[in-house]
Design a protein that fits this description.
Chain lengths: 474, 474
C-alpha cells in the first residue's frame, strides 16, 4: 500500500471509474458522515468517497487501486461497532460505499432464495422476503440502515441466531470484486455444491479484507404462523441452560429466542422506564425471555405451558408468564430491549461482547462477576444477552459514586479480566461485532499463532499489495 | 512434490513417526484394502500406509513429508466415490489412514456439541449422540464405515440435508495438521465467534488438499419424537416443487426428507424386488417420498393430511398415502432406497450427481431427458433423488438390447450433455460426491478461471510444496 497517499492522477482516475455522481471530494459537505462511526468512537480521513452504481464500476475502481497500491475501505450502512468501516487518520485510504447498489435483483420463492445487491438494507431484504410470503430471519437493532454487504462481511448475528444461524449461515453465494480487480460471480443458489473450497464463507466475516462484496444469494425460510413468548424467573443460570435444553427437546428445536437477564439489569429497566413492570410475582436473581415459533398453531402454547410447568415442579423455574396478546408480548420484549438504554441512564458502562459454550455460561457468569467485583469494589455487573448461543453481553455499570471517566479509564483492565476468563473457558472475545480496529491488537493475545499465520497467508495470497481494508482484522 | 518417490530413509522416518504398529509396508497383506476404492473404479500404489494414533503422530508425519516433499493421501473409511482417498499409480504417495484415531472425545449435551476423532465412523458418532438423547442428523448409506474426517473433507450430504444441512454446516470447529506440520487447534464449540476467517469451513470440503483433519466439534440437535412419512403420486415435477413449498409452509420448515422418484425407476423397483408393491391406486409419471419430523406429537399427522388433501384438491397430487406403522414406513423408504440396486439389475448405468436450484428441477428434468434420448434412442433415464435440495441423481439405464460396454463407452458423451444443461441452469456437476480425481479435469470447464484462480492461490499459500493429497480437486 502506498502510505504517502494516492496521487492526484490516481484520485482522478478512481473518481472517473466510479461513474457519474459516483465520487465525493473532501470539499463536499456530504463527506463527513462517511468518516465517523455513529457513536463517535471511530474517526478517519479520506481523500475520496466513491459510490459506484454497478459491479463493473467497483471492479474498475479496484483495478486502479491494485495498480497504484491505493488502500480501499468498503463501507455499508456505517453501523459497525468495531471501526471496520472507517478509514485511518492518514488521509490515504479511499472509501468505497455500496449504498447506490441497493436493488433486490431477483426473488425465487420456490428455491427459497433471493439475490440482493450489497447495498440493500437489511430491512429492505426482510421486506422483500415477507412480500413473497417468506422469512429472512436475521434481525438487528440497526436493520433500517445496515446493509447486506456489511452484514455479510461482519457475519452479523442478532436475536434469531439460535434458530437460523448467523449471516454466514444465511448466504448461499456471493458476487465480489477480488483485490486484483477481478469479478467473482459466485451467485449460486444451490443447496448442494461440492466443487471446491467454500469461498463464500471465506469472504463472509472477512471484514472486507479479501475483496468487496457486491451481491449475495440469501436463504429464505417459511414464515412462522404461530409465536409464543414466555418470561420466567429462574433458580440460577444453570437452570437457564437446562430450561433451554428442555424447551428445545419439547419443541423439536423451535426455540427462536432465549435471552437471559440479570436481576441487576431488570431492576435498572423497571426503575428507568415508565410503564415497565415486573410481570411475575416471584423476585429472582435471573430471568429469561423465551420465544418459540412454528408453522402450525394450536399445539405450541400447550407445549410451552407443559414444559414450564414441569420446570417449576423440578425447581428450575420459580415463576413464569406467557404473553396473552401482542401488547403483552411487546411489553415482555421491552424488558430485554431497554436494557442497554437503562444502563446508559445509570452512568458510564464498560462492555463485553463475548461467547462461551452454552454449558459454560453459568461458570463464566460466576467467575467474571467475582473477578470484576474483586478488582473494583462497587462495580455493578449487568450481564444479559443471547444465552442460547452462549453470547453474553457482560456489561459493567460504574460504581454509583465513581467519576464516569475514571471508571472508563479502567476499560482495558476490565476487558483483560473478563477476556481472560472467556479464553480459559474456550470462548471468544468477539462473539458478534468482529475485530475491526478495536480488537486488532488484542486478538493476537487470544488467537493461536498457527491460526493467525493461516489467516495472514490467505490474506497475502489474495491481496499481496494489502489494498483491501488495510489495518483491519489482521 | 518429489515425483521420484520418497527415499528409503524418508520412508523409515515416516514409519517411525507413525508410532508402534503404525506403518504397513507393501509386503503386508493388509495393504491391499487401502489401495482400491470399494467399487473397484479407482486403484493406486503406495510405498507405505501410515496409521497414526494421535494428532502428535500425524504432525510428526506431516513435518517429515513437508521437509522431504513427500505426497500424502489422507484416507478415512475409503468410501468416497470420486477417488479422492486413493493414491495415484506412481507409488510415490504415502497413505495416512485416520482409522486408529476413533474415539468420541467428549459429549456436551447442554452445548449440543460433541468432539470426535476424525477416524470415528459416522455410525459411532450418531450412536454417541443418541445415547445422550441427541440427534446427529447426517445419514449416508456408508455410515457404518465412512469416517468423520472423510465426511467433513468431502462435505458429505445424504437424505437430511434439506432440514439440517451438509457436513460443512454441522461442524463448529476442527483440529487439523496443516501442510507445514503445524497443529491447528480449532476445536471451538462456539455458536458465535467473529474473530477472523472461517478456517473450519475452508478445510471442510477441501478433500484433504489443505491439511489432515484429526478431530472435529460437531453440532447436535434435539431428537425428534414424532415422524410422519408420506408417499404421493404427482401431476408432474413442477407439482413436486410446489408441494414441497406447501409442506414447508404448513410445517414451519420441518420437512426432513423430500425425494422424487420417476415412474421409470419406480417400475424397476417393483419389477426387481420381491414384496415391493405400489402403495397407491393411481399410476403417475412422478412420485415423492416425504417425511416430516417434530419434537411434539399429535399435530403432525393432521398437518400432513390437510396439506396433502389441499394439494389433491388443487390437482398437484393425484393420490397419497401415509405410513400407518413402522413396517409401512420401511416399505415406503425401500421404494426409494432400492432404486440404485434395481437399476443395477437392469444392466449398465451412467450416473450423474448434479444439482440445480430447486425451482429449476422441472426444467432440468425435461431438458436433460429430451437431450439424452435424442442423442441415444432407447436410453432409459431413471432420475431420482433429493429434490428438496435440488440434487438429482440423473441416472441412465442402457437401452434394452444394447451391449453394456458400448453403452458405458458413451459415459463422457452423456455427462457432457447433462452437465451442459446443468451449467446453463446455474447448477453443479458435483452436488454431493466431490471432485477427487474423477472430475478434476472436467471442473475446469464449468468453474470460472477467477474462482479456480482463488482456489489455487489458497492452495499454494498453505501448501507451497503441494504435498497434501496431490492430484486431487485442483
Amino acid at each position: 500500500m502506498n502510505m504517502s497517499g494516492p496521487s492526484a492522477d490516481t484520485l482522478s482516475r478512481l473518481a472517473d471509474a466510479a461513474g457519474p455522481a459516483g465520487a465525493l471530494r473532501p470539499d463536499s459537505e456530504d463527506l463527513a458522515r462517511y468518516l465517523v462511526e455513529w457513536r463517535g468512537l471511530f474517526h478517519g480521513e479520506t481523500p475520496l468517497v466513491l459510490r459506484p452504481a454497478s459491479v463493473d464500476a467497483v471492479a474498475a475502481i479496484v483495478r486502479i487501486a491494485h495498480e497504484t497500491g491505493t488502500g480501499l475501505v468498503p463501507q455499508g450502512g456505517n453501523t459497525g461497532l468495531v471501526g471496520g468501516q472507517i478509514p485511518d487518520m492518514s488521509g490515504s485510504q479511499v472509501i468505497v460505499s455500496l449504498e447506490r447498489m441497493n436493488s433486490v435483483r431477483t426473488v425465487d420463492p420456490l428455491n427459497n432464495t433471493m439475490i440482493v445487491d450489497a447495498g440493500c438494507t437489511l430491512q429492505t431484504t426482510q421486506e422483500a422476503a415477507a412480500s413473497n410470503n417468506r422469512l429472512f430471519p436475521l434481525s438487528l437493532a440497526s436493520e433500517g440502515s445496515c446493509q447486506v454487504g456489511g452484514v455479510i462481511s461482519t457475519n452479523a448475528g442478532g436475536t434469531a441466531v439460535l434458530r437460523y444461524g448467523s449471516m454466514r449461515d444465511l448466504v448461499l453465494g456471493l458476487e465480489a470484486v477480488l483485490p486484483n480487480g477481478e469479478i467473482w460471480d459466485g451467485l449460486s443458489g444451490l443447496r448442494k455444491d461440492n466443487t471446491g473450497y467454500d469461498l463464500t464463507r471465506l469472504l463472509a466475516g472477512a471484514e472486507g479484507t479479501l475483496g468487496i462484496i457486491t451481491g449475495a444469494v440469501v436463504k429464505l425460510f417459511p414464515k412462522p404462523r404461530a409465536t409464543e413468548t414466555a418470561f420466567a424467573a429462574l433458580r440460577d443460570p444453570q437452570a437457564a441452560v437446562e430450561l433451554l435444553a428442555r424447551l428445545q427437546d419439547a419443541s423439536g428445536g423451535l426455540v427462536s429466542t432465549f435471552e437471559i437477564i440479570s436481576d441487576s439489569g431488570f431492576e435498572l429497566t423497571l426503575r428507568h422506564f415508565e410503564g415497565a413492570k415486573d410481570p411475575l410475582s416471584h423476585p429472582s436473581d435471573w430471568y429469561v425471555l423465551a420465544e418459540v415459533t412454528a408453522g402450525t398453531d394450536g399445539w405450541l402454547r400447550t407445549m410451552l405451558e407443559t414444559a414450564l410447568g414441569n420446570a417449576i415442579d423440578d425447581g428450575l423455574v420459580l415463576d413464569a408468564t406467557l404473553a396473552e396478546s401482542e401488547t403483552q408480548r411487546a411489553a415482555l420484549w421491552a424488558l430485554r430491549e431497554n436494557m442497554s438504554e437503562a444502563q446508559k441512564l445509570e452512568g458510564a458502562s464498560i462492555k463485553h461482547d463475548v461467547s462461551v459454550p452454552v454449558s459454560s455460561v453459568p461458570a463464566f457468569l460466576q467467575q467474571a462477576t467475582d473477578a470484576v467485583t474483586a478488582a473494583m469494589p462497587g462495580v455493578r455487573p449487568v450481564p444479559f444477552g443471547h444465552i442460547g448461543d452462549g453470547n453474553i453481553h457482560f456489561n459493567l455499570s460504574q460504581p454509583i459514586a465513581m467519576d464516569p471517566q475514571a471508571f472508563l479509564d479502567q476499560w482495558q483492565a476490565m476487558n483483560d479480566i473478563v477476556h481472560g476468563i472467556v479464553a480459559s473457558l474456550g470462548g471468544s472475545i468477539s462473539a458478534e461485532h468482529g475485530i475491526g480496529t478495536l480488537k486488532r491488537d488484542e486478538i493476537k493475545t487470544y488467537k493461536s499463532d498457527v491460526e493467525l499465520g493461516v489467516m495472514r497467508a490467505i490474506k497475502a495470497a489474495l491481496d499481496p499489495k494489502g489494498i483491501m481494508n488495510p489495518g483491519k482484522l489482521l
